[in-house]
Amino acid sequence: MSTKIIYFTAAAVPTAAEVIAIGKLNAMVDTGFEVLVMDGAASASYGTTIAPCDYVAGTIPTAFNAKSTVDPNTVKSLFVGLTDALVESNDILTIKNSAGTVSKSATATVAANAITNIALAATDTLVSSSDTVSVKNSAESITDTGTVTVAAGVISKVKLPATSTIAKNAASVDVKNSAATVTKTGSLAVSAGAVQSVGLASTVALVGNTDTLAVKNSAGTVSVNGTTTVSAGVVSGVALAADTAIVADSDTTTVANSAGTVTATGTVAAALGVVTKVALPADTAIAVDADTVTVKNSAGTITEAVSTLNAAVGVVTDISLPATTTLVKTGDVIPIDGGGHVTVTVAAGVISACAYTAP
């Protein structure tokens, strides 16, 4: 015996919406249903009782309130079990993950009484553990491949290869030289999905080969520029200009007069980053024009304490003795007041004889 459904229209002539609903019910006829259409505004009497039926739909008269109702849009659920469902092509199905926490809508395709496909929207996809996916930066200018891990029906992580990483703005990274022997910590600057720069601390600098570098003494009061040499990732030297030298305490250096014709070796004294003096040997002195010196004879037995140096072009040109002092050497002729003269003989720095010659 077939199952009977009565669809009640609101008036004698069905509306467009009612025609569509009746069509959905008529589609069930070949599944063992019988569909009867009645005017809901007319008498519902069927002899001494109401018209017999199993289900009612539409604009249902009060006399049929005790009957089970059916929705034309879901009428197919009447002939399937509670755990079964009828699916037609283009039906929209809800697809959920195993935990039921993620839902997506999909469109069914039915052919030969079987579901042949359930299509997710173009913006949805299915992902399984161990699937590989493309991982892109925000600008989509950098792409890498990651491996998906799915747990409890959701993606728990996407793992990048060991040679790739995720760089975040302000993250700290190690910056190494080419030999990996020097390491400093830098801070990443990331924008538009890419590392724009790595900022080093204000006390750390990058130095390239042939860079110009200021070289200062310990007090920071003397500064000269040098040219760096970098090899194997480290600064191997800083070359000063040819007219600049590094001098350390106790170094020896050549001291020359202005003409460069007289030289002596001196010992440098350096303190607080500067040369404080150059000490000459005990048997060497610095002579300045107009200095006063002591002049002695060769034996050191005769001394003239106040004598004036004359220096020019870096050398002592002469020594001026006082007006009351003179130099005498062997063979000098000294006039004698009243006539005649004496010829001087000098030995061991003193006059040893005077030979008188009469006028």
C-alpha end-to-end distance: 187 Å
**Domain module tally:** 4
Helix content: under 10%
Largest sheet, order of strands side by side? Answer: 2-1-5-6
Shape descriptor reads rod-shaped
Mean pLDDT across all residues, rounded?
89
Total strands: the figure is 27
Computed structural class: mainly beta
The radius of gyration computed from the alpha-carbon positions, rounded to a whole number of angstroms, is: 59 Å
How much β-strand is present in the residues?
over 45%
User: What assembly state would you assign to the polypeptide chains in this entry?
Assistant: single chain
Unreliable runs: none
- Main β sheet profile: 4 strands, parallel
How many helices?
1
Helices and strands, in order, run as EHEEEEEEEEEEEEEEEEEEEEEEEEEE
Which terms would index this structure?
four-stranded parallel β-sheet; 1 helix; mainly beta; three-stranded antiparallel β-sheet; 4 domains; rod-shaped; single chain
Provide the fold topology.
Elements: E1 3-9, H1 16-26, E2 33-39, E3 45-46, E4 49-50, E5 55-58, E6 68-69, E7 92-96, E8 103-111, E9 114-120, E10 132-136, E11 143-151, E12 154-159, E13 172-176, E14 183-191, E15 194-200, E16 212-216, E17 223-231, E18 234-240, E19 252-256, E20 263-271, E21 274-279, E22 292-296, E23 303-312, E24 315-320, E25 333-335, E26 341-347, E27 350-357
Parallel strand pairs: 1-2, 1-5, 5-6
Antiparallel strand pairs: 3-4, 7-8, 8-9, 10-11, 11-12, 13-14, 14-15, 16-17, 17-18, 19-20, 20-21, 22-23, 23-24, 25-26, 26-27
Short characterization:
Helices cover 3% and strands 46% of the residues.
